[in-house]
Amino acid sequence: MIAQAIRYCIVGLLSVGLYVVTTWYLAGHQYAPRSLAIFIAFALATTFNYVFNYYWSFAEDVPHREAVVRYIVVVAAGLIWNELGVELMFVSDVPLMTAVVICAATWPLVSFASQKVWVFRSSTPARRIS
């Protein structure tokens, strides 16, 4: 599990880097409006993250048709987690950047656990060889 967590962290860091570089390139060089650049960068980084976690970090036998739907649910939950978490803490007088850091720091742990036990775990029982 430790090797799996390390691979997950590497994929996550590369995904963040891809998101930042793509946003900087598209918006910074005015190839796309800022909101479109952010959308494209997020979609690219999320796709990269799914593929590398599927094939490298977790490498289970779950079919893509199961894993991709579950992965989208986890990504949507992450967006909600961050938006609502920051807003709820902010209205409770937690400074904005403190709330952002708390959500950003806790989400990878929740996401790793979700991906390990649900997204990339096959729903079909393993066959036993007698």
Search tags:
globular, 130 residues, mainly alpha
Write the layout of secondary structure elements.
Blueprint: H1 2-28, H2 34-58, H3 64-91, H4 96-119
Helix pairs in contact: 1-2, 3-4
Provide an overview of this structure:
- The protein contains four helices and no strands.
- Helix 3 packs antiparallel against helix 4.
- 80% of the residues lie in helices and 0% in strands.
- The longest helix has 28 residues.
- The protein has 130 residues and is mainly α.
- It starts with a helix and ends in an 11-residue tail after the last helix.
- It has two domains: 59 residues; 63 residues.
In short:
The chain has 130 residues and is mostly helical. It is 80% helix and 0% strand.
Number of strands: 0
Give the overall average pLDDT.
89
Radius of gyration: 17 Å
Total domains: 2
- Major beta sheet summary: none
User: What fraction of the residues are assigned to beta strands by DSSP?
Assistant: under 5%
Q: Structural class per helix/strand content?
A: mainly alpha
Anisotropy-based shape: globular
Total DSSP helices: 4
Q: What is the N-to-C succession of helices and strands?
A: HHHH
**Which ranges are low-confidence, i.e. pLDDT below 50, for 5 or more consecutive residues?**
none
Fraction of residues in helix: over 70%
Distance between the termini: 27 Å
